[in-house]
Amino acid sequence: MESDAAVTALLEVRGLHVAYGKVEAVHDISLTVAPGTIVTVIGPNGAGKTTLLSAVMGFLPVQGDVRYLGAPAGALSVEQRVARGLILVPERRELFAAMSVADNLELGAFQRIRRGDRGWRDTLAEVYQRFPRLKERRDQLAGTLSGGERQMLAMGRALMGKPTLLMLDEPSLGLAPLIVREIFRIIADLRSTGVAILLVEQNARAALQVADYGYVLETGELALEGPSSELAANPRVAATYLGRGVAAAGS
Amino acid sequence: MDLQIFALLVQDGVTNGAVYALLALALVLVFAVTRVIWIPSGEIVAYGTLTLAGLQAGKSPGTVGLLAGMAVVAGSFEVYACLSRGEAHRMPRQLALWAGVPLAIAAASWWLATFELPFWAQILVTLALVTALGPLLYRIAYQPIAEASVLVLLIVSVGVHFALTGLGLWFFGAEGSRTPPFSAASFELHGVTVSVQSLLVVATSLALITALYLFFGRTLTGKALRATALNRTGARLVGISPDLAGALTFTLAALLCAFSGVLIGPITTVYYDSGFLVSLKGFVGAIIGGLVSYPLAAAGALFVGLIEAFASFWASGFKEVIVFTLIVPVLLWRSLTTTHHEEDE
Ligand SMILES: Nc1ncnc2c1ncn2[C@@H]1O[C@H](COP(=O)(O)OP(=O)(O)O)[C@@H](O)[C@H]1O
Ligand SMILES: [Mg+2]
Predict the structure, then answer these.
(1) Helices marked H in chain B — which ranges?
(2) Same structural domain for residues A182 and A235?
(3) Do A80 and A198 reside in the same domain of the chain?
(4) Are residues A168 and A246 in the same domain?
(5) Stretch A2-30: mean pLDDT, rounded?
(6) pLDDT tens-digit profile of A71-128?
(7) Which domain holds residue A112?
(8) Looking at the structure, do residues A180 and A238 belong to the same domain, yes or no?
(9) Are A100 and A215 in a shared domain?
């Protein structure tokens, strides 16, 4: 099972440590994402989820092994990772506020267009189909969008780069329940396109529903892992993250 | 002051202002994309005039040697970077780009300078030589510390300014140069003499500004530079390399400065160290635009040109004093009206 996973894994993280100066925010984390699967990392605020994704994306110096597409990724720049289809939708969205929705999406395909990949226009049509709101607002400036629309634009922009592994950092953060439901429906929908997803969430209930496998991150360390259904059934997870069985929380 | 003199001063002011506007745009562009306060822009302007003057005199301009030297330095930087990152296979391409291309431009210019070129060809050679300095300057001085604070980048800019002034003396000598006007013709319009030279300067500036506008609005590369200026993290997330954005920005900025140098040559005598005052005037314009607004920066530069023209008529000895005193109320006004906001979505 172990060796099998090592061969087929898209992303493999082994013994990862990430520090801000002397303060270590992530200690000794190992996780695997297989092609075409949805894997979630849940955990409370400040657990180190954003730090983990930033490190995998190449924004932070790390100790430990990060392998992507079977090759060591540690020496790759952020741009080189993007070129290999590793794409992050960050917690802060990081849109180009003073540019139109259409320009934001076009820039999402920046590397593909530069490579001469004509397929980006088809991807744009797909993105508009997936997010009809973005199509309606394509000439509007990104900075004028609502929170939900901004999240959609951030996801659309990431999809424009044709990700092999899409990393989503708290896509439901700060959104109204109705929109959260729509975002998770879209994430579930993406499964059929074959893209693998690493989903970081505080909204454990929704994340475990959509994911195949889950990890629980607490103060920088992995506390639990397992198939989503097992994690959801785990009394400790249920008590702490799903708000069920409060009486059993003490055990 | 009668109408005739007034019209002449306005004409002078607008002509100078059009040149400062190019410089102000270059400064805003460089700051927006790389956060560098580009003090040495003036030296690039001076190099532009001095290069054209050298070609006019039938000499190989000092820029050839300077460009070749910088190409060698940038090339060795790239070799070191490739080796230390364990990317030896990228070395040929990087060397060709950072050393090969500029060396080829230097060699071609050196060879072309031996002919009696027509004026327009001399201008093209000047633009090529001086523009090529831009990305090399970025690669050597700024890229290694691209993530540093604005203050550190500013200190480096001061250092680069002194280095380029010294190199200017070394490569171009101490004597000043003036280039001939593009046209000596003039015509009467409602009793006011309009010089074709002034019209050409203003038209060239307007054409460049229009080209820039289209570049940033329509092309992917232009949009990528704007994106980098708007949100550096966002730009990296879509795979825009900050190094590439920086090098491109400095290429464009050097092109604008080279144009300024060519346009200013017939207006004033330029020495190896004349650049500083010119760049300061561009800065006053750029600061009126808060270092972020292109149209305000261009308008500010025009305003500086007009003030300068009228100041030189009424109190020519105090011309520079008046222009730079202007910056005090402008700074006050800007600091009172701008709200500082973090770079954010
Ligand atoms: N830029 C930073 N500098 C220093 N400490 C940071 C920085 N970003 C996050 N941290 C710290 O790292 C820990 C993990 O933060 P983060 O990864 O943002 O958690 P999460 O995304 O799970 O909420 C927190 O203790 C936080 O205070
Ligand atoms: Mg977070």
Answers:
(1) 3-34, 41-56, 63-84, 91-95, 101-112, 119-137, 150-172, 196-218, 220-230, 232-237, 242-264, 275-288, 294-314, 319-325, 327-337
(2) yes
(3) yes
(4) yes
(5) 84
(6) 999 889 999 999 999 999 999 999 999 999 999 999 999 999 999 999 999 999 999 9
(7) 96-162
(8) yes
(9) no
Chain B interface mutation, best of A76, A94, A160, highest count of B Cβ atoms under 10 Å: A94
Answer yes or no: do A75 and B85 touch at CB < 8 A: yes
B64 burial via Cβ count (<10 Å: 0-12, 13-18, 19+): buried
How many Cβ contacts (< 8 angstroms) between chains A and B?
Answer: 76
Q: Is residue A91 assigned to a domain? A: no
Which of A110, A138, A162 represents a domain boundary (last residue)? Answer: A162
**Same domain, yes or no: A232 and A130:** no
> Is some CB atom of chain A closer than 8 A to the CB atom of B146?
no
Instruction: Decide if B239 and A99 are in contact by the 8 Å CB cutoff.
Output: no
The domain tally of chain A equals 2
Quick one: what percent of chain A has pLDDT higher than 70? 94
The closest CB to that of B227, out of A90, A96, A143, belongs to: A96
Low-confidence ranges of chain B (pLDDT < 50): 341-345
Indicate if A54 and A120 belong to the same structural domain: no
Helix axes A101-108, A120-130, angle to 10 degrees: 130
Closest residue by Cα to atom 26, ligand 1, is: A46
**What's residue B5's pLDDT?**
85
Amino acid of residue A28: D
Among all bound ligands, the one having the nearest atom to the CA of A92 is 2
